[in-house]
Amino acid sequence: MKLLVNFSRKKGRKPIIAQVVRDTGVLINVERAVIDSSEGEALIDVPDDQCRLVSDSMISLGANVRILEHGISLNESECVDCGACISICPREVFSMDNDWKLQLAEEKCVLCGKCIEACPHQALTLPL
């Protein structure tokens, strides 16, 4: 399961992810992170059965956490299978099947948003 974690450096410079790994014993895969001197956001992947434990631990350390049930969404009625999203995606989320129909591997998505900008028909959306 993916968690979107936001934190502020105003509350201190604790290594939140490392502390949660140490305290819970749950291995966390950081899929994307943007951190500067005042705040940060990380998209992490944790085992589904440990999601609540990791989320609660991060919240107790001052982070805001959103559990993401889904990654990128495709509106099939808007999609024309042009493939503009395929070449821009850094994680190979998109592909074409044998009938040249766009396929989506949602679990690979790191929510970077590059595909949304590339889609000429606005058929892709990020989770709210």
List how many beta strands DSSP finds: 8
Structural class: alpha+beta
Number of helices: 4
- The fraction of residues assigned to DSSP E strands is 25-35%
What's the gyration radius in Å? 17 Å
CATH class of the largest domain: Alpha Beta
- The N- and C-terminal alpha carbons lie at a distance of 16 Å
How many structural domains in the coordinates? 2
Shape: elongated
Average pLDDT confidence is: 90
Reported for the largest beta sheet, the result is: 4 strands, antiparallel
N to C succession of SSEs: EHEEHEEHEEHE
From the 3D structure, determine the CATH topology of the largest domain: Alpha-Beta Plaits
* CATH architecture assignment of the largest domain: 2-Layer Sandwich
In CATH terms, the superfamily of the largest domain is ACT domain
Sheet with the most strands: spatial strand order: 2-3-1-4
User: Roughly how much helix do the residues carry, as a percent range?
Assistant: 10-25%
Structure description:
This protein has 128 residues and is α+β, with helices and mostly antiparallel strands. It folds into two domains: 2-68, ACT domain (Alpha-Beta Plaits, 2-Layer Sandwich); 73-125, Alpha-Beta Plaits, CATH 3.30.70. The protein has helices spanning 16-24, 51-60, 84-88, 114-118; strands at 2-8, 29-35, 39-45, 64-68, 73-74, 94-96, 102-104, 124-125. The strands form three sheets. Strands 2-3-1-4 form a four-stranded antiparallel beta sheet, covered by helices on one side. The radius of gyration is 17 Å and the shape is elongated. 20% of the residues are buried.
